[in-house]
Specification:
Mean pLDDT: 93
Order of helices and strands: EEEHHEHHEEEHHHEEEEHHHEHEHEH
Strand content: 15-25%
Number of domains: 2
Largest sheet: 10 strands, mixed
Helix content: 25-40%
């Protein structure tokens, strides 16, 4: 069973996701230049958001190279000598996850994605050994960790986005979620620039001119966004806990709808709600992207913007492709806040009055 999420979202001038030159990211599609927001920035924005973390309830994972220090701090708080604690934890981390960074004994060579349960187990195993009057054995604890967490996790975000440990593949987790780069539905040729200055408040009255000059790049666009969640993979990653998996899907849906990358938010206020949301549950695992609805760039009608014609293009593409390629009847849920007329009776009939019902319609069929 595959869960598809689609969104059309318009952003006023902003710089959501910069490239190495500071310009908004872009890409070629349909023979024209499009504005782009990377999938990685979208994933991170959701997983670290208060909306996602509050909705999942269960502690999410920690993504860091510096996992040794907080584990040592927990052991020290339980009366373990800091030098001994550091030695125990370092050996376990190296045996379980990755080698240490050559430049820092407090950091791993790669970024780890570790659940709260894994950290708790490491602390518990070390304290248990010490309470029994024996030195903690890194190899023994590593084997227990691998046995407990191989191909599964307690953290919703790790279950969604997976993790890869090249040195220790036993703890790899296949991602249940796929997310596409967001692309503008229309052509966006080049970024615009804001030329700004700053003046010293204590500058003498007889001195003129600015003390700093700068340029900030920005653009504006209506974006198509898409994500898919493999339900069976998510349940497997979460140890078969369907309730937590359902809760994770709902949390991700809220995040998908309400969270955007925070790039230069203080300069532009980039929080804009979606113009259109579509969620689909397909029992046959035959999920798809609808990006090709915009392979021919959307054009602005006289006196109008890109949002409404983008919605109409998506609805028309849905009607054409679903009639040909559909294998089984899906569950469909739509949010159409501006009540645009849809060129699809199915999408019009699946429209929900609010975000909560959009989410609950999908969550209620997951089992």
């Amino acid at each position: 069973m595959m869960i598809e999420l689609h969104a059309l979202q318009t952003f006023a001038p902003s710089n959501l996701n910069r490239d190495d030159t500071g310009n908004p990211k872009d890409a070629l599609f349909g023979g024209v230049r499009r504005a782009r927001v990377s999938s990685q920035s979208g994933k991170r924005a959701i997983r670290v958001s208060e909306i996602f973390q509050r909705a999942t309830v269960v502690p999410n994972g920690t993504r860091t190279k510096g996992i040794i220090k907080p584990i040592v701090s927990q052991l020290v708080a339980n009366g373990v000598n800091e030098t001994d604690a550091t030695s125990y934890v370092t050996k376990i981390i190296e045996g379980t996850y990755a080698k240490l960074d050559k430049k820092s004994a407090e950091k791993t060579s790669v970024i780890l994605f570790v659940s709260d349960s894994e950290i708790t187990m490491i602390v518990s195993e070390i304290l248990d050994a010490l309470n029994r009057g024996v030195a903690p054995e890194a190899d023994t604890i590593t084997k227990k960790l691998v046995k407990e967490f191989e191909n599964r996790t307690s953290a919703p975000d790790i279950a969604l986005f997976g993790r890869m440990l090249a040195e220790k593949p036993a703890l790899n987790i296949d991602a249940a979620c796929q997310m596409a780069h967001a692309l503008s539905t229309h052509e966006v040729n080049t970024a615009e620039f804001d030329y700004f200055t700053a003046v010293d408040d204590l500058q003498a009255n007889d001195v003129s001119g600015a003390d700093m000059l700068g340029l900030v790049a920005f653009n504006s666009a209506t974006y198509y966004r898409c994500a898919r969640i493999d339900w069976e993979q998510l349940v497997k990653n979460l140890r078969g806990d369907t309730d937590l998996a359902r809760q994770t899907v709902a949390a991700f849906m809220y995040g998908f709808a309400l969270v955007v990358p925070s790039g230069m938010k203080n300069s532009f206020i980039n929080q804009h709600t979606p113009d259109f949301l579509l969620a689909v549950v397909r029992p046959d695992n035959n999920g798809q992207s609808l990006a090709n609805a915009f392979e021919k760039p959307v054009r602005v009608a006289r006196g109008g913007g890109f949002s409404e014609p983008s919605i109409q293009a998506l609805a028309a593409y849905w009607e054409r492709t679903e009639g040909i390629y559909r294998l089984e009847e899906p569950v469909v849920s739509v949010v159409n806040p501006h009540q645009h007329t849809l060129e699809s009776k199915e999408l019009a009939g699946a429209t929900k009055p609010n975000l909560q019902e959009w989410v609950s319609t999908i969550a209620s069929v997951l089992e």
